[in-house]
Amino acid sequence: MDGRAVRSACAGVAILVMMGSVDAAQADPVTPWWLSPAASAGGAAPLSLSGNDVFLAQAAGANGQQAAPPPGTPALPEPSNPTAPIAPNVMGVLTRKGVLVIDPSLEYQHTSVNTFVAGGVALLNVFMIGNFNASQQTSDAVTATLGFRYGITDRLEGELRVPYMYRNSTSVDTLVSTTNFQQTTGMEAYALGDIEWALHYQVNDGQQGWPVFVANFRTKSNTGTGPFDNVRFDPAGNEISLPTGSGFWAVEPSVTMIIPSDPAVFYVNTGYLYSIPGTVDRTFDPTHFITTVNPGGAVRFGMGMGVALNEKVSFLLGYQEDFISGTLINFGNGSSFTTSSLSVGVLNVGMNWQTSKTSTFNINLGVGVTRDAPDVDLLVRMPFSLDLN
Questions:
Q1: Within 13 Å and on the Cβ side, how many CA atoms surround 246?
Q2: Coil, helix or strand for 213?
Q3: Does the global pTM surpass 0.90?
């Protein structure tokens, strides 16, 4: 198969690496973040965060995209350009110098969490006396993102991503006892997400059988509404809307290795997301005054491949895993609380179609394979390029 097919697979791999980013504001179980606190020996009762906002505070970023994580998205670096030509003796995977790629995308994520708690006493292992509490929580998020990539040189690429997000969550709590009781609550939010920008640098030319290495550095802002922001609560401290961002700045260095093997292109990506601690200094109820929050970092690993079916169409398959450490929350009375760590694993499959010399259509489906991952992540992208030389 000729080099055009390899370029088709390489373009697909770029999209697949992008899917590795789960937008933290979306890829999460849905529970109201302020749960009934339990008594603790160290002073005030610890603050309990839902998986939803724990992911936001820990991953500090989507689809993220991602996430995600990446979501979306939550976003890992994208090492290739769907329209950049490759010189005969040099493997170029970034946007060519003077070329601007405009990358609009639309992402949908769905998450559901079901819990069942028995609060009774078993008699002879036959029947139970007491109450049963069943909870069903669902979340849907739609993120429209406008991305830009520009070739500063043939080896250096700049990137900017601006997301706008809509979120909706519903919780149904059922108490099964002598008199059944069911309560349904729902919240929604639509606002700007966390804007991010990145630099990608191609380290080598991939000659003499070497893979191509790309060094990446991404910065995520806190332009979205964070889990601890005042606008999310009424004067009594009750949660009235959902977050659309992490609430904290974050930086992520990473390295991508790309291995062409006609008609396929393989990739491996690894990086570390560091979320910068922040000061909150606000009271959530008479017993909880939060001073500072130290979001957990995340070790990120992704791998996959793109297989060219012909010179325009490629099939994509990949896996992304994020290991996110707990968030440390400090209270005004000197006590503290650390949330549980998370494991977010997503299996991605998709298709990339180069519709013309300057445009590409891509669709990807992500399926969560760990408890903390979103159930479904569907991403549609339509990047096109403009030669400004």
A1: 48
A2: strand
A3: no
